[in-house]
Amino acid sequence: MSGFGWKEPRFPTVEPSTLDILRFTLAGVVLLPLAVFLSVCARLSAASRMRRLAALRLLGLSRKGVQRVNAAETVAAALMGAVVGLGAYWVVNQSVSRVGLPGFKWYPEDGSLSFRTLLICLVGCPTLAWFVGRASARKAAANPLAVRRSAVEKAPRLWGLLPLVPGTGIVIAYCVAGASGHVPTDTSFSAILMPLAVVLVGAGLVLSLPILSRLLARRVARATSSLSLGLAMRRNEMEPGGALRVATGLVLLVYAASLTQGVLIELDQVSKNTAPVQLYTMTLDGMSREKEEAVTKVSGVRGHAVLAESWTDPEGQERPQSIRAVIATCDQLRKMASVVKNCVEGRPARLMIREFAYDEFSRPGKSYPFRLRNSEGKSRFVAVRVPTSTIQYHDDTPAQIPGSGTVLLPPSMFPAGFRPVGRAALALVSSSAPEAVRSVLEGIAGVDPTIEVETDGLDATALQQITVIKTLLAVGMILGLIIGLAAYLVAATDRAVERRPQVTALSLLGARPRTLRTVQVAQVVLPLVVGLVLAVVTGKMAESSYLVTGGGAVFWDGDGLPLLLVSAVGVVVVAALGSLPLIGRRIDPELIRRD
Fold first, then answer.
1. Cα 529 to Cα 217: distance, rounded to the nearest angstrom
2. Counting beta carbons within 10 angstroms of the beta carbon of residue 572, is it exposed (0 to 12), middle (13 to 18) or buried (19 or more)?
3. DSSP letter (8 states) at residue 108
4. Of 229, 283, 300, 575, which has the most beta carbons under 10 Å away?
5. What is the pLDDT of residue 1?
6. How far apart are CA 439 and CA 443, in angstroms?
7. What is the b/e burial string over 354-378, where b = at least 16 CB atoms within 10 angstroms of the residue's CB?
8. E strand residue ranges, 138-192
9. How confident is the model at residue 203 (pLDDT cuts 50, 70, 90)?
10. How confident is the model at residue 46, as a pLDDT?
């Protein structure tokens, strides 16, 4: 919240250190699938476009001319896409900012793009497209005959495994260190090495997928006796780069999802209260009786009581004697504590807590004054004598709400309309679950947003930051999922269009549509399964190594593994179903003659 006249708020919504983690995670969740999507789009209709450019080269156009033609087409498409994308962002920002996201709201002006960002999008994207267009046309310009005759694709080099080996080695080393109890203490070194390992593993997944797909396809083709599987594997063996285009986006999405799970676990350890209950205390000074009653009825509150101290003369003796008191009924006390024995309704008693130091001033028979005040401002004193009866007490808070020797006073001991003043506070207890804590804090703010609430064992600011971060990560995961699926659909459709002459030839040779669909599904599913297995394994190792270097108590996350496996299986099912319609029913011999 910012005041009038200030350009920025006094306290940031998210701490800079946490914001760096969020940026790095969103870069992996969104930018990696986006890079794959852009590379896929850059190769749309690559085969037919390369043949067209090769034809221009054979007709006499120079090498640079061929590259300029392709670059100009790419720049025009990139410029149009940048304009459409900026317009779509403006519409989304204007609409979503007025509704807000769970736990996160902003003004439309806060989400507006700066002039520098607009300049980067409108100039940087076409500039990048220019170099990409020139580079992609280099093959057709240098060797047009090989392109026109559909030369066999070169086998992928083993150097593609180079990033995966050191990246996996780093994360394995951190996992072994965590399992053996030798947790690294040099956080500055880990802060550099851990992101480097994550990037190396992600790049290694992309570059090693064609190599592993080709190797596996060759082994399966030699061992299988199935016609459909043999055709599919031989095609993957001859064109391993197709697997890279189709499966990479979904593989990186599963890998990034595992890393996101690790980030959420690490951030949750920072703000989570380890006790089963959460204590809230707020001073009664300035809080009306109506607000006090409203706060105790907030959703999620399990129990409440008033904590007070006896009155002492500030100008009296050097060490004034006072006692603490809990003003509550036995029923209220039982709702706040797990152990309450020998409590008699309407009778004062001392609370005895095992293994806790006893209040030296709480001696039976001694009398202490309590200063009271009503809503009209009238004050009076009530003397309270320390009783001899005791109550066995224990609650689930780490420090215990009252100390041992604290006197339980029934509300009926005080005149109607009067409350203790001075060091008097209202104590609430709820479950420590983040949802319950958030509900109680929002309820208190709904009664009076100016009430200062102290949360024992919990950083309320960190809890709010976790809510914002979870919302942003959820949005990033949704964007990554959309981009990954879009990259898959575009790549799979484009690959099917490029393979129409081969599919037509097989149809004319007698292959049934069912066989062709089986071939198509196998071509997509096999490299995808290989990539997803690698993504799940390396993703969990990277997640565990991140937790080991994070300094928290949790190193291994078994709860998120079933969801990750279900997501991976769902990705395979979607990819298989999406491949079925790509084989058309109509046979067009013109495709072969034209080719």
1. 12
2. middle
3. T
4. 575
5. 45
6. 6
7. eebeebebbeeeeebebbbbeeeee
8. none
9. confident
10. 57
Neighbours of 548 (CB within 10 A): 26
CA–CA separation, 302 and 431 (whole Å)? 7
Task: Give SS3 for 368.
Answer: strand
Cα(16)–Cα(93) distance, rounded to whole angstroms? 24
Query: Measured between alpha carbons, how far apart are the two ends of the chain, in Å?
Result: 66
Are the CB atoms for 490 and 44 separated by under 8 Å? yes
What is the rounded CA–CA span in Å between residue 370 and residue 351?
A: 18
Q: For residue 595, is pLDDT > 50?
A: no
Query: Could you count the other beta carbons within 10 Å of the beta carbon of residue 446?
Result: 12
Beta-carbon contacts of residue 481 (< 8 Å; ≥ 6 apart):
253
Report the b/e string of 40-63 with b at 16+ CB within 10 A. Answer: bbbbeebbebbbbbbebbeeebee
Q: How many residues does the chain have?
A: 595
Strands 277-283 and 301-309: unpaired
Nearest-CA neighbor of 578 among 503, 504, 523? 523
pTM: 0.67
- Angle between helix axes 187-223 and 241-271 (nearest 10 degrees) is 140
Paired sense of beta strands 425-431 and 277-283, if any: antiparallel
